[in-house]
Write a structure and sequence with these properties.
Helices cover 37% and strands 25% of the residues. The N and C termini lie far apart (62 Å). The chain has 13 helices and 14 strands. Helix 6 (214-225) packs parallel to helix 8 (252-265) and helix 8 (252-265) packs antiparallel against helix 9. The strands form two sheets. It has an eight-stranded mixed beta sheet with strand order 9-8-10-11-7-12-13-14, with helices on both faces. The protein has a six-stranded antiparallel beta sheet with strand order 3-2-1-6-5-4. The chain folds into two domains: 5-105, Beta-Lactamase (2-Layer Sandwich); 119-358, Rossmann fold. With 361 residues, it is α/β, with parallel strands linked by helices.
């Protein structure tokens, strides 16, 4: 019997039950779930090559890949499982055999509260202009944080919000804002072209799924400079690495101008790491570094202070709502019994520093 949408729904239900973030499907192997940081096999029979292609036939429905599964070697997209969730899919070939990874995306739009994010994030949703970057490795929840910020704006403001995503993950309802969600390759060729086009569509807020190249970054900074709020992600570990990465993407003669543009238009960065939570099997919680722009940070970007001073500036500003460092976030999660002492010590800048902080506080 062919693999059906009902079978896919049953598999997704198992993943949701165990708080799995991803489902791995490979030829001649049983399904495997990503639960927290572990890969856990499902007690099920192995999937044949035919079954993998039958799943592809389901999730490729409505995509440009529909009917092309035997002609492609990789594909990205999203699929809606009715009345349950969305999945972001990646199809790939390995040693000539098909495989899939499905990322579970909740139908519920995340909120700042549901993600247990620092209330400072609400201040970011109140910004009217500038560039905000969410940073961190793949799978750390950057898209969820951006969705929560968009949700907060949508509930409070009559704004035109344009998103440019690859693929569209969270599908936002129109509450107070008007949303135009555009998908790369379907609605626009590239992030850069979608962003240039968005500037002619009377936007208030623009979300760019990812800053992948200098052209997109340059256009995003120009959009922020002309009075728009621009939200995006970049694969860097913290504020210092983010600023360094952006500057390094430009040639030597351009770097002075980029530093000036960043100093004038970057409003905030949110660095994320997912840590193992004590609140249930497979549960993860985000530790956040939050940088809100300040005169001291501007001096660091322009070279008047060393970039490595940024973490200390963030920590000094935390007492008045000016952000928080990763260490401050980790210490707070430990004090609230959300993460264990072992996790906190391992993720702190150094175990010795963590022990010292506990003695002081």
């Amino acid at each position: 019997m062919a693999f059906s949408l009902t079978n896919l729904k049953d598999l997704a239900n198992v993943a949701i039950k165990y708080n799995a973030s991803d489902i791995h499907l490979r030829t001649d192997e049983p399904p495997v779930l990503r639960i927290g940081s572990e890969l856990v096999p499902v007690q099920s029979k192995s999937l044949s090559e035919i079954t993998i292609y039958e799943i592809c036939a389901i999730i490729f429905t409505g995509h440009k890949y529909q009917g092309q599964v035997d002609k492609i070697t990789e594909a990205d997209g999203a699929f809606n499982i009715p009345d349950l969730c969305r999945v972001r899919f990646n199809f790939f070939k390995y040693t000539g055999r098909p495989g899939l990874v499905l990322r579970i995306i909740s139908k519920e739009i995340p909120t700042i509260e549901s993600l247990n994010l620092n209330p400072i994030i609400k201040n970011i949703s109140n910004l009217s202009r500038g560039l905000v970057l969410v940073t961190g490795p793949t799978g750390c929840g950057k898209s969820s944080t951006l969705a929560a910020i968009i949700n907060e704006i949508n509930k409070k403001k009559a704004a035109h919000i344009i998103t440019i995503e690859d693929p569209i993950e969270f599908v936002h309802p129109q509450i107070k804002s008007r949303l135009s969600q555009r998908e790369v390759t379907i609605d626009t060729p590239t992030f850069a072209e979608g962003l240039r086009s968005a500037l002619r569509q009377d936007p208030d807020v623009i979300l760019i799924g990812e800053m992948r190249d200098a052209e997109t970054i340059s256009t995003a900074l120009s959009a922020a400079e002309t009075g728009h709020l621009v939200l995006s992600t970049i694969h860097t570990k913290n504020t210092i690495a983010t600023i360094t990465r952006i500057i390094s993407m430009f040639s030597g003669e351009q770097q002075a101008d980029i530093k000036k543009a960043l100093a004038e238009n970057l409003q905030a960065t949110i660095g994320q790491r997912l840590l193992k939570s004590e609140k249930g099997a497979g549960k993860m919680v985000a530790a956040l570094e939050i940088m809100m722009m300040s005169p001291g940070i501007r001096e660091c970007i322009l070279g008047e202070q060393e970039l490595r001073s940024i973490t200390a500036i963030i920590e000094r500003g935390s007492s008045n709502g000016g952000g928080q460092s990763f260490d401050q976030s980790i210490l707070d999660l430990f004090k609230r019994k959300i993460i264990s002492r072992e996790v906190a010590a391992e993720e702190f800048s150094s175990p010795a520093d963590f022990s010292q902080k506990l003695l002081i506080e």
